[in-house]
Amino acid sequence: TDALNCVYKGFDREGHPVYFDRPDPKVLGVLLVAHPKELLMRVHLRSMEQGRRLQKMYGVDRVTCVIDFNMMSMSMVTNPSAMRFMKALAHEDQTMYPENMRFMLICNGGWTFSAAYKMIKPILDPRVQQKIHFMGGKEALYTDLGKFIEACNLPTEFRGTHNGEHLLDIPVLLKLPKGTAPSVLASAAASAAHRNPDNFLIDDSGIAAGSPNIADFGEKPSGAAEDLDIDIDEL
Fold this sequence. Notes:
Strand order of the largest sheet: 1-2-3-4-5
Shape: globular
Structural class: alpha/beta
Mean pLDDT: 75
Distance between the termini: 21 Å
């Protein structure tokens, strides 16, 4: 996920964890050549499962996604393999996590993203389309983002003040009551990371060091990544 510039940081104004994604066409192109597409799909699904764990930890039922297409170029739109893979991701997300997303905030889309979106939109459920919001350009970008996410939960590249730490399994947050203000959650997360940075280490399974097992939170969510039988041979 680090290579794909995907990470959970902070909370939106409603208290949902925020998933930041900044796709890099060059990196994606290299990964599609160097690794089986099934493996890349598993990496993506691992991130989705991390989001579900965060939801259970903080007493919410969804996450907000911020996707920054600042590095997107026509090379991705005109790459058939990349576009088929993106469509496969959209299909799996809708099938396995139909109500996982609160909002999807599109930043720096430009005309290249518009071209890609036209290709993916037909396979998106109408309810998913209603959750997608396009942020304005230039100065309006920061104003529009601020309507959904406070500055203390935004990374510095969006003129926020978030310290950049990954939002993983931070035990101190489990002690906060449900409905705690996002700004308080962000402050507690930053403080915990400063006191014990090991909370942010991830092992080979993609789970934060010292994290409780998903079974600790009750019934395993339907569609858990390890139960998937993904068939994307056509990609």
